[in-house]
Structure formats: structure tokens, C-alpha cells
Design goal:
This protein is α/β, with parallel strands linked by helices. The chain is built from eleven helices and eleven strands.
């Protein structure tokens, strides 16, 4: 019986302790330890895992990996990757959808609780050594309503958590229509949309104007799905109750940006999806499962629809 040929995989050494000894025999692995080594090894890759916070070395590695057949990323958002090029080259892309959903959702709910109870002002009072005579915020989550704009893994996790606080949720997927007519009914607008041509600017000045005056906008998806300038104007003029932003444009926000000084804005600096030990372990386990699927020619777990962009 003819032996199966080896497939070269260029993988991050970060995951070597978890993966080594568990990888299939048909995989021939090259481990990279830094961006320069990743770029140097990329031309050998049939399977690549090129994750880095700095994107230029990743994009360069993809360009050099002319024999690439499958790219693994632990990032959920893939709008920064050359999806059209992958489709042209026949590269399969699997992403990190769901790997950090719970931790991102926790940040979203943390922001909602902070906005409801005025927690930023409580922390500032503690910094001043001031004993507040009354609560800084008196909103109850129980009995309020949340529109979840985006209902993938993150949106579903947010929904489960908010229901535990007695919040009535209404999920909306990016392909749904009609939700704009109901915006005035909700206390919380929670956005966890993917970044695509279709979702860019989905919540703009008109949508913000349709919100009730006490509504809070929460964005833990992509910054460009929300018209940030229109939001800042509404916050400054106090036409809505507040905003909780884990994502902004640009990142990081420059000194002097109005979002730093608006007391009705909470900025969490895109910290919600930073990989943790637990999410990195989940990424490694997903890679192992996908190795078997890839070898069998089956669709991968969290495989990206390159045409849709997520």
C-alpha cells in the first residue's frame, strides 16, 4: 500500500507544548518562534498558522506561501485577510469564531452593568476618596430590552448572559431586515457584527437618532459597523444614554480624542478578545480536529465562507 505523502505545516511554537505528540503522522511541522522565522518558513507551508498581532508579517507570509492549501487563524474577525486572493488560489480558511465568545460577551455585559449602575463614577469617587451619598446609576437590567445586532457565537453568548439578568432579548442577524423600525423599543443595542462590505456603517446617524434617549450602544464587533462620528455627536449632545465601545477607529485612540473625555462613554480598548490560556488551548484543540477534516476533504470547523467574509 502506498504511503501517504507528508504535508508541511508551519505552526507557531507557542502551541508546540500542546500539539507535539498529538499531531497526525502525515504532518511535517516547521515551528516558528518570531515574525522573521515565520516569514522565512512561509514558502514551505501547505498548512499555515501565522497569527500575530502585527499584521504586515502575516500578510507577507501569506504572499510567500504559494503552495498554501489551508490557513488557520485563531482570530474571529478575518476582514483584514486577502479573502478574494484565497478564493482565487483555492486556499481554505478556518477562523477563531467562538473561541473567545464567552470572554468577549463578558466584557459586553460588564459594560452594560457599568453603564446601568454608573460604575465608572463610583470608581472615580473612590480615587478621590469621596463617599457617594447615593448611587451613581439606578437602572435595573431586569425588565429591560436588548436588541442583539449580530447573532453569531458572541451575540448568542451575550444573549444567554443577559437573559440571566432578566433582560428580554431580540436577536438580529446581519441578513435580517426590519429591525430599524423597532429601535425605539430597546434599552440596549448590542453589536457583534462581522466586518464586511454589507455591515460597514450598518448603524449610522439615522439609526442612532431612532434610539430612545436612555438607550446605550454597545459595540464588541467591528468598529466600522458603527458611525463613530455620529455616535460621538449623539453622546456629546446627550441624545442617547451612553455607549460601551470595545472597538474604536482608530486603535489605539489618539490623545485628545473626544471618546476619552465623554463621561457617557466607556472604552475598553479592544481588550475583550485578547487570547487567554484557555482560548489558546481551545484554538489548539480546534486545529487538531480540523487536521482530520482537512485530510478527509471535509468542511472544516469554523471554515470561513470567503464570499460572505465570515
Amino acid at each position: 500500500m502506498e504511503a501517504l505523502s507528508a504535508t508541511v505545516a508551519v505552526l507557531p511554537a507557542l502551541h508546540r507544548p500542546t500539539l507535539e505528540g498529538r499531531l497526525p503522522e502525515w504532518l511535517e511541522v516547521r515551528w516558528w518562534h518570531d515574525p522573521d522565522e515565520m516569514v522565512a518558513l512561509a514558502p514551505q507551508a501547505e498548512i499555515g498558522w501565522f497569527d500575530l498581532h502585527e499584521k504586515p508579517p502575516v500578510l507577507r507570509s501569506i504572499e510567500l506561501a504559494t503552495g498554501l492549501r489551508w490557513l488557520m487563524t485563531a482570530y474571529a474577525g478575518v476582514d483584514w485577510l486577502p479573502l478574494a486572493d484565497f478564493e482565487r488560489r483555492g486556499v481554505v480558511l478556518s477562523c477563531g469564531s467562538g473561541l473567545t465568545a464567552s470572554q468577549v460577551a463578558e466584557y459586553a455585559v460588564l459594560g452594560i452593568l457599568a453603564a446601568a449602575k454608573g460604575f465608572p463614577e463610583i470608581v472615580r469617587a473612590q480615587d478621590r476618596g469621596e463617599w457617594l451619598p447615593e448611587p451613581a446609576g439606578e437602572r435595573d437590567l431586569a425588565g429591560s430590552r436588548a436588541l442583539l445586532l449580530g447573532y453569531g457565537a458572541i451575540g448568542q453568548a451575550v444573549g444567554r448572559m443577559l437573559e440571566g439578568f432578566g433582560v428580554a432579548i431580540e436577536p438580529v442577524r446581519s441578513s435580517d431586515t426590519g429591525w430599524r423600525d423597532r429601535l425605539s423599543a430597546f434599552d440596549w443595542l448590542v453589536m457583534s457584527l462581522p466586518g464586511t462590505d454589507k455591515t460597514r456603517g450598518m448603524v449610522g446617524a439615522d439609526e442612532i437618532a431612532a434610539l430612545k434617549s436612555s438607550a446605550v450602544v454597545v459595540n464588541c464587533g467591528r468598529a466600522d459597523t458603527l458611525d463613530q462620528e455620529a455616535l460621538v455627536t449623539a453622546l456629546r449632545e446627550r441624545r442617547i444614554g451612553g455607549a460601551v465601545l470595545d472597538v474604536t477607529a482608530p486603535e489605539p485612540l489618539p490623545p485628545g480624542h473626544p471618546l476619552w473625555s465623554l463621561d457617557n462613554a466607556i472604552v475598553t480598548m479592544h481588550l475583550s478578545g485578547i487570547p487567554t490560556a484557555a482560548s489558546q488551548a481551545r484554538a489548539a484543540e480546534r486545529f487538531l480536529r480540523n487536521c482530520a477534516l482537512f485530510r478527509e476533504g471535509q468542511p472544516l470547523e469554523a471554515q470561513v465562507d470567503l464570499a460572505r467574509g465570515y
